[in-house]
């Protein structure tokens, strides 16, 4: 505790590295924070996986999703778009019995619908905030086209935003193309996970480590 009432913004581990409290509780969260969260992901399949997991996380803790990640990968064909897009009612019924994932019909059906929508994006023209993404572009390129000019500089957890102008616009664009479970808060969390924005706390050993953003919030 810093003043007897509030937890510290950063926790220094036995390795001498400062992390936010959420990444300092369990080894799996620590590893995820240190090696993956906020590092750039651009490829279509990698972005689709994280989009799906963020959708499943809605209303749950990230630890719950992270500890079922291999179950999700197995259940959803490694998040390869074409196999998931081909899932039908039989696969949905099987997934609803799969204890290795979150058995939520709406989220399962949304993941299948989102695979189909992501495939359809490849054929479309005029995607993105500037309308400059044409046929052959994919989900990863679309998400990254909403990268802001600056990224937040939070010094404490309370200063980390949960939405942004860009996440609102991205959510609207994805919904327009048939994506589900892609609200502005979920899209901001996706942007954080992919490195599109950097919300590592100032003073964290990961701040500015993505190669996308400098510590001062400007492009690297």
From TrEMBL:
Keyword Metal-binding: yes
GO molecular function, one term: DNA-3-methyladenine glycosylase activity
Pfam families: Adenine_glyco (PF03352)
UniProt xrefs under SUPFAM superfamilies: DNA-glycosylase
Domain of life where this protein originates: Bacteria
Classification via InterPro entries: Adenine_glyco (IPR005019), DNA-3mA_glycosylase (IPR052891), DNA_glycosylase (IPR011257)
Ligand binding (Zn(2+)): 200
Keywords, ordered alphabetically: Metal-binding, Zinc
GO BP annotations, alphabetical order: base-excision repair
Presence of keyword RNA-binding: no
Name of the protein in its database record: 3-methyladenine DNA glycosylase
Source species: Brachybacterium alimentarium
Species classification: Bacteria, Bacillati, Actinomycetota, Actinomycetes, Micrococcales
